[in-house]
């Protein structure tokens, strides 16, 4: 093998041995709006993170769907919060979204490649909406968990396809900043 004499750092970076390539594309209003609206797919993930933490601490929610946890909380007047919620059903309710998001992100990668980013984001949004409706009208724990699974599928599709969509839409100089709007959307969703 020949030694790499005379090769400088960066020589392997461009198509012609280190030349800097200017890619076409400018940050226009339509590109900016497309990227920001696409990145708002993070809102559903953040919102659901905030909701699941909030509702599991509401006494009326616990009384209706998790009466054993509610009774235990009412009897326990200590200030120690450790293992206060030790119900496996409550754990299933909380974690079902994240497990479904993991599984669906694997399916979403194929769907995103096959059908495109916008279709994948639309499907994720529709599945999320179906889960939200099911959870809003839930009358028992089974409906709640199934709704959370649908929410997880929607979140999995969105978190897989949105960053790719924004990266492909954004001009290369602004790609990192516009992809951070996705992270910001997740944080705003948690806040809301």
How would you explain this protein's 3D organization?
- This protein has 192 residues and is mainly α.
- The chain has a single domain, classed as MFS general substrate transporter like domains (Growth Hormone, Chain: A, Up-down Bundle).
- The model has no long low-confidence stretch (mean pLDDT 83).
- The protein contains 8 helices and no strands.
SS content category:
mainly alpha
Helical coverage, percent range: over 70%
Give the CA-based shape: elongated
- List unreliable stretches of 5+ residues: none
Based on the structure given, which CATH architecture is correct? Up-down Bundle
Give the helices and strands as they follow along the chain: HHHHHHHH
- Class, according to the CATH hierarchy? Mainly Alpha
Count, helices: 8
Instruction: Write the CATH fold name.
Output: Growth Hormone, Chain: A
Radius of gyration: 23 Å
Largest sheet: none
Strand composition percent = under 5%
Number of domains: 1
According to CATH, the homologous superfamily is MFS general substrate transporter like domains
Distance between the termini: 60 Å
How many strand elements? Answer: 0
Average pLDDT figure:
83
Task: Chart the SSEs and their pairings.
Layout: H1 29-39, H2 42-55, H3 59-65, H4 67-75, H5 88-115, H6 117-136, H7 141-169, H8 175-191
Helix pairs in contact: 1-7, 1-8, 2-7, 2-8, 3-4, 5-6, 5-7, 6-7, 7-8
């Amino acid at each position: 093998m020949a030694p790499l004499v005379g090769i400088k750092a960066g020589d392997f970076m461009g198509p012609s041995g280190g030349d800097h390539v200017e890619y076409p594309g400018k940050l226009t209003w339509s590109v900016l709006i497309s990227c920001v609206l696409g990145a708002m797919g993070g809102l559903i993930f953040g919102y659901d993170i905030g909701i699941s933490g909030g509702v599991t601490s509401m006494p009326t929610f616990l009384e209706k769907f998790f009466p054993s946890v509610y009774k235990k909380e009412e009897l326990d007047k200590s200030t120690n919060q450790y293992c206060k919620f030790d119900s496996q059903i409550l754990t299933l309710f909380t974690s079902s979204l994240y497990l479904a998001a993991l599984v669906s992100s694997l399916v979403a990668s194929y769907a995103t490649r096959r059908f495109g980013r916008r279709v994948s984001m639309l499907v994720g949004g529709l599945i999320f909406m179906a889960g939200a409706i099911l959870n809003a009208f839930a009358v028992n724990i089974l409906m709640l968990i199934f709704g959370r699974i649908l929410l997880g599928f929607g979140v999995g599709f969105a978190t897989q396809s949105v960053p790719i969509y924004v990266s492909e839409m954004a001009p290369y100089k602004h790609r990192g900043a516009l992809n951070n709007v996705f992270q910001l959307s997740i944080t705003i969703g948690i806040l809301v």
